[in-house]
Specification:
The complex is a heterodimer. By secondary structure, chain A is of the alpha/beta class. Chain A contains four helices and ten strands. Classes of the chains: A alpha/beta, B alpha+beta.
């Protein structure tokens, strides 16, 4: 069977989505690469772990990325709501450390709808919010037989979907063409 | 026939401006001098009277001066601050007349035509100037004449006022140097025996012009009033502050915003006239009980559009405690940048504007410096391969080049257990047991010895791109000079 691109991909616009797992950052970078225009990336300023623009350059032009350093998660959510409602940035990514309540989750959804921009929360595993439109579990997969070039094999699993079905795919990011390829899982 | 008032000009000369400025702040009793480095010698730049009495002079090398006068106190001169101080004095001198210009690096020239009577006559005005400047600790010499040249000459060479219309009678006995001539021209004229202005005025003009050029006679004519000479008043820097005083105190947020809207309109008109845009604005709200509160707004880029600036204040104004009411609003653009008028075109997209507006608005919440962008930097060191700059104060530029794959996330090196030059087969990292399925490397990166960096004290690093059987792709490095293994990043 020839695998096709997930029907719920790219992410539905004007909604807030969630991604968890070790490959969530890569997932966010690929989503940003599919959009044009600036991307706002919210992170808590005290965290030592940073996004590396040199690595990000394989996905999209790092000049498109604006990073906002926020004090804590509450401030981050407030900034995200304002940015989503404004609609000047088509994608807002936030790194969350604590579970999201229904109220802030719903507020983000409404803001995204008002501004027609997409939100993406990078969450720790198992801390999803009920308000999210879709939730993806992204994990890198060991590729025993890598093709030419340094492609990365990932498994994307959609574990929550408000308007569609669940599913799982193995995908590969093509560095040269900057394109997402869906590959059949090994062993099938 | 009445032909108007004759022109009257005052020239102020501060013979010891630089040292007076320093001594105002730190008075010194004994001989004192400011020293300026000229060429490779320290020379006296400005002295106080006590030092002059000891026989020191301007331009004397500092070592000589110390030999003459061992208790000389000296300090380095700061010509930039002196120039600034002269501008302050110029601004102060507008209390006497509106037409005040700078004259050289230690003088002012005031056109007091028609202003003297406000101070009770010319004599009283000069006395007032002298008194005020003496109280400020400045030594000054004043000259008053019909022309700028005459005032200049009287201030430097013959202190005192010249009667209106005195002309040559007032200047005649002054030396030739009082005509603002080049030093070599002055010396040449003196060698010809022309020592005073009288002598020069009595000489035939044609030979003088032939020998020294038109400049000498031009200066003479200017001093005597035969040729006009303009005084250029220094331009006042534009002031971007407006205020609104209310007959009754207000307290509602909507009222304050309405008042602010009025102020913004005036301020933006002022900015537009100067082709400038505000980068930072401060709104001061004065309460009835004399308390004052500030709301500060900083913009992602210079703007002068009231409709765009007004919403930025909403958050700050909402947090104000109005107390018994606010009766005065003051709005000042504290930081202003040039913003030329631009052609509005249907082609230009408004996305950049919208993004800047969003940055400004988020900046009022989390601080404008906290919204950042990446700029490429020229370094092999992974942590220094990029710069982080505030988005509002930088433009995206440069190209991103990476010859080898680089991790998407970087963190401070986290040590893991491992030995030898090849990556360990099994290791624990962040409480996870990982086993290595494939390692690509090494890629050796040497520290930048010209920069001090504690993290790179351990010397060379051999970087390995490691794929674990679980799928995670990590960036490990080994430090051969100081054996140890660390994890520094994770690939997508």
């Amino acid at each position: 069977m020839k695998p096709d691109v997930p029907s719920c991909y790219p992410l539905r616009k004007a909604r807030v989505h969630e991604a968890c797992g070790a490959g969530a950052t890569g997932f966010a970078a690929i989503m940003a690469a599919h959009l044009s225009g600036p991307v706002l990336w919210l992170r808590e300023g005290w965290r030592a772990e940073t996004l590396n623009p040199v690595g990000l350059a394989a996905f999209l032009d790092p000049a498109r990325v604006l990073v906002a350093q926020v004090r804590d998660q509450t401030e981050g959510l407030a900034v995200m709501e304002e940015a989503l409602r404004d609609g000047a940035v088509p994608l807002v990514v936030i790194e969350l450390g604590q579970p999201l309540d229904l109220t802030p989750g719903r507020r983000l959804q409404l803001a995204a709808k008002a501004g027609n921009s997409t939100g993406l929360c990078l969450i720790p595993e198992g801390m999803g919010s009920n308000a999210a439109e879709t939730r993806w579990r992204c994990a890198p997969v060991f590729d025993a037989d890598p093709g030419p070039g340094d492609s990365t094999l990932q498994s994307w699993e959609i574990i929550k979907n408000k308007s569609g079905t669940l599913g799982a795919w193995h995908v590969r990011w093509d560095w040269a063409a900057r394109r997402l390829d869906v590959v059949p899982p090994a062993g099938e | 026939m009445f032909d108007g008032i004759g022109r009257r000009v005052v020239s102020m000369w501060f013979p010891r401006l630089a040292s007076d400025r320093v001594l105002r702040a730190h008075p010194v009793a004994g001989p004192f001098a400011l020293v300026l480095r000229q060429g490779n010698a320290d020379r006296l730049h400005c002295l106080n009277p006590a030092a002059e009495r000891q026989g020191l002079a301007r331009g004397m090398p500092l070592s000589d001066a110390r030999a003459f006068c061992p208790d000389l106190l000296s300090r380095p001169a700061d010509p930039a601050r002196d120039a600034q101080f002269l501008h302050v004095l110029r601004r102060w001198a507008t209390r006497y007349c509106p037409w005040v210009g700078l004259d050289g690096d230690a003088g002012l020239v005031l056109d007091i035509t028609g202003a003297a009577h406000l101070f009770g006559g010319e004599g009283a005005m000069l006395a007032d100037m002298r008194q005020n400047l003496a109280r400020a600790g400045l030594s000054v010499r004043l000259g008053l004449g019909d022309t700028r040249g005459a005032a200049w000459a009287l201030a430097r060479y013959g202190e005192g006022p010249a009667a209106p219309g005195a002309g040559l009678a007032a200047l005649g006995d002054l030396p030739i140097a009082a005509l603002r001539l080049e030093p070599e021209v002055t010396v040449a004229l003196q060698r010809l025996g022309l020592r005073t202005i009288n002598a020069l005025a009595a000489t035939a003009r044609a030979p003088i012009a032939r020998r020294f050029g038109p400049d000498v006679l031009h200066r003479l004519d200017q001093a005597l009033g035969a040729v006009p000479e303009a005084i250029t008043p220094g331009a006042e820097p534009p002031h971007y502050g407006v205020r609104l005083t209310l007959p009754d105190p207000i307290g509602l947020q909507g009222d304050v915003m309405a008042g602010l809207a009025r102020l913004l309109e005036t301020l933006c008109a002022k900015l537009k006239a100067q082709e400038a845009g505000a980068r930072a604005l401060t709104l001061t709200l004065r309460r009835v009980d004399q308390g004052a509160q500030d709301v500060e707004v900083r913009l992602a880029r210079p703007a002068r559009d009231p409709a765009r600036i007004l919403p930025l204040f909403e958050r700050g104004v909402a947090g104000i405690d109005a107390g018994f009411g606010i009766d005065r609003l003051r709005l000042e653009a504290t930081q202003v940048e040039p913003l030329p008028v631009e052609q509005v075109s249907h082609v230009a997209s408004d996305r950049g504007d919208r993004l800047d507006d969003l940055i400004s608005r988020l900046g009022t919440r989390i601080g404008l410096e906290n919204i950042q962008r990446f700029l490429p930097a020229d370094s092999h060191i992974p942590e220094r391969g990029f710069l982080i700059a505030p988005a509002a104060f930088s433009t995206p530029e440069g190209a991103w080049v990476s010859l080898r794959p680089r991790p998407l996330r970087l963190f401070p090196p986290e040590p893991i257990a491992g030995q030898g030059a090849r990556p360990p087969h099994h290791f624990r990292w962040r409480r996870m047991a990982l086993s290595v399925a494939r390692g690509t490397g090494p890629e050796r990166i040497a520290p930048e010895w010209w920069l001090e960096d504690d993290a790179w004290r351990s010397g060379l690093r051999d970087y390995w791109q490691v794929e674990t059987t679980g799928g995670r792709r990590l960036w490990l490095f080994h430090t051969p000079q100081n054996p140890g293994w660390f994890v520094q990043g994770e690939f997508a």
